[in-house]
Structure formats: C-alpha cells, structure tokens
Design a protein that fits this description.
CATH superfamily: Phosphate transport system protein phou homolog 2, domain 2
InterPro entries: PhoU, PhoU-like_sf, PhoU_dom
Oligomer: single chain
Structural class: mainly alpha
Helix content: over 70%
Pfam families: PhoU (PF01895)
Shape: globular
Family: Belongs to the PhoU family.
Number of helices: 7
Order of helices and strands: HHHHHHH
CATH architecture: Up-down Bundle
GO cellular component, one term: cytoplasm
Strand content: under 5%
Function: Plays a role in the regulation of phosphate uptake.
Number of strands: 0
Length: 234
C-alpha cells in the first residue's frame, strides 16, 4: 500500500497494520450480514452470534491502534506514511462503530422476537438499505486496500442512496403508526434498526474520505460531494 522505504521492516510494519484493518473490516462485514439475516428470518441464534462477536472487534481496535502508536514512536513517519497511519487509526474507529450498529440491529431484533412482534410493518426499505450498507462497506475496504480515490468518491456519492431509503422508510413508518397506533412500539424498534443501517453507510463514507486524505493529503470531511469528487479525481 505504501511506496518502498529504505527500511524493509518499515514496509512490513505498514503492510501488517493495513492487513489487520482489512481483517477487521471483514469481520464487521460479516457482522452486518449476520445481523440482517437475523432480522429477515427472526433468527435469535444469528442475533446472538453478532452480539458475542462484538468483543472481538473491540479487541482488534485496541490492538491496531496500539500498533499505530508504536509505528509513530519508532519510525516517525512523515508525509503520506504519516497520513496512512493516522487514517488507519480513524478507520478502525469507524469499523468498530459500524460493528456497534450491527450489534444494535441484533439486540433490537431479539427484542422484536421477545415481544412477539408481528410482520405488520413492511420493512422492504430496511432490507434494501441493509444490502446497500454491506455493499458500500465492502467497496470501501477494497478501495482502502488499493488506495483508489476514484472508487472512494463513488462510495461517498452512493451513501446518499442509503439516506434516501432511510427517509422513505421513516415516511412510511409514520403513516403506519398514524393509521394503527398498535404498531407504534414495533415501528419504533424498526426505526431504530433503520437508523443503525444508515449510520453504517456513514461510517463507510468516512473510510472513503480517509482514502482521499491519504493519497491527496487533503481533509475532505464536511466538504460537498462535488468538491470531494473534484479533489479525488484531480
């Protein structure tokens, strides 16, 4: 991922933490897929697997962050290498938080099951946005592995689609609850789940922005999509 250095050990250190980020990302992706499976099938065992695996993500975040600190202390990286290490530290924070959102989906699914929630609420938008969230995270990790700013810019654009699915579901949910107040409790649980999925998309978008920061040296957080795209493609 990085240009060759005089120290082959430095290259090895950078490659190692980059590989660990991708490993952590793979676990988060699996967590989201399993959480959505639990929701779609009302599968309590799948939900429990997501909850149990959360501790592993927390451990990985701490371990990788510690290795980033060690590299900075030992190697004193500069320019792009320093940006890479800093971006990795921020990326794993976003991955851990995406894992938290998967855990929230699993816990809320278990609550729906325990409450004997019916399928009176059509959750088509949740299913679609869940598939989008998995896809956008997978592509963000692939773009990170290749430091592909063009792909990163596309991910930022595509996150908007998840936001639109979320807003569409909220509008539909409000209608359900107004027409039948008995659906309010179930509706709020589904709203919580939809928001968790939307946040997963946000974390994938953040990772994409870090890729542009590594390669271009520009912090594109809080910039408009058009400005970000110009920076990524310049």
């Amino acid at each position: 991922m990085s240009d060759k250095h005089l120290s082959s050990q430095f290259d090895a250190d950078l490659n190692l933490i980059s590989s660990k980020v991708l490993e952590m990302g793979g676990l988060v992706e699996s967590q989201i897929i399993t959480a959505m499976q639990a929701l779609n099938d009302f599968d309590g065992e799948a939900a429990e697997r997501v909850i149990v695996a959360e501790d592993r993500l927390n451990t990985m975040e701490v371990e990788i962050d510690e290795e980033c600190s060690n590299i900075i202390a030992r190697r004193q990286p500069a320019a792009r290498d320093l940006r890479l290490v800093l971006a990795i530290s921020k990326t794993i924070t976003n991955l851990e938080r995406a894992g938290d959102e998967a855990e929230k989906i699993a816990k809320r699914t278990k609550r729906l099951m325990e409450d004997g929630a019916s399928r009176a609420v059509n959750i088509a938008e949740i299913k679609v946005s869940g598939e989008m969230a998995v896809s956008i995270l997978r592509r963000a990790l692939d773009a990170f592995a290749r430091l592909d700013t063009v792909a990163a810019a596309q991910i930022v654009r595509d996150d908007k689609a998840i936001d639109e699915e979320f807003r569409a579901f909220v509008r539909k949910l409000v209608t359900y609850m107004m027409e039948d107040p008995r659906t309010i409790s179930v509706g709020l649980d589904y709203l919580f789940i939809a928001k968790a999925i939307e946040r997963i998309g946000d974390h994938a978008k953040n990772i994409a922005e870090f890729i542009i920061y590594i390669v271009k040296g520009t912090d594109v957080r809080h910039k408009s999509r058009d400005a970000l795209e110009r920076e990524a493609l310049s």
